[in-house]
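Cross-check.
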Amino acid sequence: SVTYKVFETPAFDIPFRKVESLSFFFCHSGGTHSNLVICDGLGRVVGRSRGPGTNHWSMGIDECAQRVITMLHAAKRDAGIPLDTPLDSLGLTLSGCEQESSNAMLAARVREKDAACAQAVYVASDTAGSLFTGAPNGGMVLIAGTGSNSLLRTPDGHQYGCGGWGYLFGDEGGAYWIAFRAVKTVFDDMDGLRPAPHNTELVWAAVREHFRAETRADLLPYASTLFDKSHFAGLTAKLSKLAESGDAMSQHLFA
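Predicted model, tokenized:
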């Protein structure tokens, strides 16, 4: 059986003006990188900026809001818009923004940090942003980045989600999940707990190279004091190259 999450999409009343003069700011992010654009009322991009991940579960609401403001200011400068000129709407579709209460907290914190950011602030998940961009009349989006998520929207506006529960409860198929699976497979094989289905020599070499480790004990800090989900997930890029070159164990990790 599959458990679904149901979402409702709020609407904003923006004062009527000539469409060309409207300005919209969109931030779309995963757990590792964020991309921002400012568009005019005709959808033309007039400003851009990039930044680090903005998943508030990883860094907290305050730091997430600060990163958004930093990128917003950079995009405003790129567009030639004064920092004290509010945009008509600020749309934040960010990794981890599945909960209405925390989304409201993030929107409020962004306004607290910059009262001139925008007239309206809307926060939703990264899946919602992709879905409304690519299939505004209904469809499905599957995301597999650092983590993973899925969202279905019917033509009559009902939305259903599956996954997106973070690296401890889910994220199957995401880069962190694959990287963790690789390390766990090597550890279990060396311990004799669960023999690997294929030779792990090349995977273990990739793990050691990525974490600059010589022994398994050298990896322990990366699961505690030095833990960085994005860095851990970066191992998957090396594993994908091994899989493409024909390494059976790497291919199994992606199966």
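Residues 1-21 have pLDDT under 50 and may be disordered. The longest helix spans residues 61-79. Passed to J.P. for a second look.
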